[in-house]
Amino acid sequence: MKKIIHWFAYTSIAITLTACQSTSVNNTTHSNKTTAVPQLTVEKIYQDKEFKADSIGRIRWLTDGSGYTTIENSATKIKDDTGKTKSIGKDIVIYNPETLERKVLISAEQLTPKGEDKPLAIDDYIWSDDKKKLLIYTNSKRVWRSNSRGDYWVLTLQSNQLAQLGSNLAKPSTLMFAKFSSDAEKVAYVFENNIYVETLANNKIKQLTHDAGNGIINGLFDWVYEEEFTIKDGFRWSPDDSKIAYWQLDTNGSKDFIMINNTDELYPTITKFPYPKVGETNALAKIGIVDLTTSKTVWAQLPNNSRDMYIPRMNWSGNSKEILVQHLNRKQDTDHLYLTNADTGTVRKIYTEKDEFFLDGIIDAKWIENGQSFIWTSETSGWRHFYKISRDGKTKLDLTPGNFDTVSIEAVDEKNGWLYFIASPENVAQRYLYRSKLDASVVNQKLTPDEFAGSNSYQISDDGQWAIHSHSTFEQPTQIRLIKVDGHQTKHLMMDNKALVEKLALLNKATTEFFQVTAQDGLVLDGYITRPADFDPSKKYPIIFYVYGEAWGQTVQDRWRGNAYLWDQMLANQGYILASIDNRGTRAPKGREWRKQVYGAVGVLSSRDQSDALKAMAKRWDYIDTDRVGIWGHSGGGSMTLNMMFRYPEQYHVGISLAPVPDQKLYDTIYQERYSGLLPEYEEGYKQGSPITHAKNLQGKLLLIHGTGDDNVHYQGAERLINELIKHNRQFDFMSYPNRSHGIYEGAGTTLHLKTMMTEYFNEHLMNKSH
What we know:
Elements: H1 2-8, E1 18-19, E2 24-25, H2 42-47, E3 60-61, E4 68-73, E5 77-79, E6 85-87, E7 90-95, E8 102-106, E9 124-127, E10 133-143, E11 146-156, E12 161-164, E13 175-180, E14 186-191, E15 194-199, E16 204-207, E17 216-218, H3 223-228, E18 235-237, E19 243-250, E20 256-261, E21 269-274, E22 284-291, E23 297-299, E24 309-316, E25 322-329, E26 334-341, E27 347-354, E28 366-368, E29 373-378, E30 385-390, E31 396-398, E32 406-413, E33 418-423, E34 432-437, E35 445-446, E36 455-460, E37 466-472, E38 479-484, E39 489-495, H4 498-505, E40 511-518, E41 524-531, E42 541-546, H5 563-573, E43 577-582, H6 592-596, H7 604-620, E44 624-634, H8 636-647, E45 654-658, H9 669-676, H10 683-689, E46 701-707, H11 715-727, E47 733-737, H12 750-767
Parallel strand pairs: 42-43, 42-44, 44-45, 45-46, 46-47
Antiparallel strand pairs: 1-40, 2-40, 3-4, 4-7, 5-6, 7-8, 9-10, 10-11, 11-12, 13-14, 14-15, 15-16, 17-19, 18-19, 19-22, 20-21, 22-23, 24-25, 25-26, 26-27, 28-29, 29-30, 30-31, 32-33, 33-34, 34-35, 36-37, 37-38, 38-39, 40-41, 41-43
Helix pairs in contact: 7-8
GO biological process, one term: proteolysis
Domain Dipeptidylpeptidase IV N-terminal: 128-477
EC number: 3.4.14.5
């Protein structure tokens, strides 16, 4: 309880707010136009999609950097039933990055199975290492968040033969995670929770695991692993193709969550799946290594393995003799790394990563130097850095030294000795490409030119010579360029979103300013504020905050937000000010302490930060009408919306909460226990951090929205909150969307209906609120 008392002590500190100077300002002005200025509407944005952005097909670099492949419409045309001409399907084309020469590598005709008149729809594709075979993923079906179950076909380029995998085994859309062996002679996949391997020369199928059923699953994950460790594919080929290492999960003991579908059939149907909530029993994870010749599995002999331990990552360690297994305790503050013998299963611990509070953002070790070293992520310096660690774990070299956070690894060019990564030491709202030498002789060399201020991401070729560069800002849609990495030379503008940019130019756009305020304990908080195009500082304006506020997101970013930006523009044109604040604990690259301060009482300090920010903003900008303050958010942002409406009812008057977690004990073990701690030690933190505890304080207008088919944040929480509000006679508005999942987007008209309802709710209760 010591840490909880420490956090709660902050609430007794007197509020002394000071406002810092703005960090960046958009001073765009608009000249008077003689033509009528188009007006944004919910229908134009979400129904007619008048402002839809461009996109390009999925790109794959060739391993030697000599070209990249992508998906484009076929040049072969047919007429549809209405007489309109359309492409018959998709081609896979290859581009030479040096000359931009284009060549159709795989035509839609080649992807048409015998006896069929339509080519396969390409959901994804993977090249074999020798580029002589192509694995096509098609007819995919949704499993939780992504379409991870479908059909797989292999095209052999030399013979032009197209063959379906598992054709004598599987029903349609039942294979998962198919992958070539390195020699492209075999493909392994998961079918009905067991792992199979198919020899391509004769389509002979061999079953490698046989124990699926009664809660046992092989080569894939349960809901909570997939969601919270962001991992779906549960097996790995050895480099020499002789073995496959895989996860096995025993979900027995994990209680099932049940969802009811009342609308699709005459009688209700039920979906149930293992979902361990806070304090409940997890699945037991194990690592097996199966020999393809004998089909025998050797199990990794991890010490003290139990249902209170996790295995968030595993990979081959630069050779076919050992795998590296990460063994994480339930509290998620200690991650042991074990090299595991692939023949015997014996293990030896080489490294341990520890944190006082929790470890976050766990990723695979990236092996280099023929397995003699690996790239690792650590916050031991107080900042999120990338390190090179020797195979025995004894030597640790910081490749990104300095008082700043790295964000992600973009590529490792081992041949030329470079680590490419994303960071933004000077402005946490932006993202830039940097690189460091793998021996740290050169560190933190910025590659993104200043002209690309904003957010940047890169898909870099394996040889480190070329990249697909995506760039956007808060007000500029994404542009994609082919660049030569050396000197960041633009070779080709692949996508400019010209039509969208031209449409945006016709709008009377509101301007956005990035700024900072200081909370009562001196912590600097980042935010943005959008003012109406016809802004008059002598007037009073209602303000709407968009909030997330939890560990898996950052709202204050200088990047294109698509329809969310346009909706804000529409509201600004109606006379609102729009704003967002990142409180402590969010995924802003501001150092370990920033992220870890909320541990043990998620929702307490973070909601106080939001309150502090509003007070500081109102003190700086007196045109903010503090009697008309709205707030909305989704998921963690829905929870934060509830916390602000319940904990600070004198400041926040209208709230729209989408898919919130009203009671933190209702969420899953991995996420919630990571940030809120384990029960019973942190019982009080769970209570005080949960919005439902403070529901009796509601004074303003609240619209609660939830999908009944939400497998992530369960509808159960909405019903518990409803009961609590009823108990205290607190009036509110509620909308349930039948069978919609966490994103609340499925079904005809859903998004338009949702955004229309939200717009009208703010207009009725905030814009027209009587003082």
